[in-house]
Amino acid sequence: MLLLQFSTSHYCRKARLALGYKKVKYEVENLTPGFHILKLKPLTGLTTVPALQPTPEPTIGDSTRILHYLESHYPQPSYTLSNPEQNRYAWLLEDWLDESIGTATRFVYYDWRSKEGKSINPSLSSQLVINIVRRQYGITPASVKLAKERLQNAIEVLSTWQEKPFLVGESFSVADLAAAALLSPLALIPEYRQEYPWLFQRIAETHQTCGEPLPPGLD
Ligand SMILES: N[C@@H](CCC(=O)N[C@@H](CS)C(=O)NCC(=O)O)C(=O)O
Hints:
Layout: E1 2-5, H1 10-21, E2 27-30, H2 36-44, E3 51-53, E4 60-61, H3 63-73, H4 84-113, H5 124-137, H6 141-157, H7 160-163, H8 174-182, H9 190-195, H10 197-210
Parallel strand pairs: 1-2
Antiparallel strand pairs: 1-3, 3-4
Glutathione binds next to helix 3.
């Protein structure tokens, strides 16, 4: 099984957490941003990573579809909750985290990398990539402000993690997995680390559960 990815993408981290949780053996191919489209478009019709190639079956594009594929082909250990209503809620959180919060994280993270976080990699080439990403996704002061508000709301929704290790019900679900991956880039930003230590503790625990190396900032 081959995972087509960008090594630094939090959506690819989400797919790796799922593969690790299921203890599926896989290899990775790191694609070059920009040229990735040439490889992906004919395979999935999409232009985004991650994509999973479970030969001989067709390539699966989109991290949510990868999670569904893994659950149906590798049922144990499961991330389906036994209570159907809770399970539906966990997938709803997964979809919201994927479609809204993962994007908000990207906006806040790349904005920070171009300002206070410049010291992470001040090289011209790194700042050039960051500027391309900011332009590609329309990361502007107004969109970053909105993203910060969205993250604030998300952290309140996820505050269930303060009391117990699972966001929904009493066992590990796709909500835990998606939250751990899609909020992980915030681990480098001091304000979030100081204000929400519990969030990063759960993100680290989820990585340990899935056998995935910790994200930058928590490693
Ligand atoms: N909802 C998609 C989002 C994936 C996504 O946004 N991937 C980014 C990397 S973090 C990407 O491939 N961007 C390149 C592009 O849009 O061309 C998923 O869950 O797979």
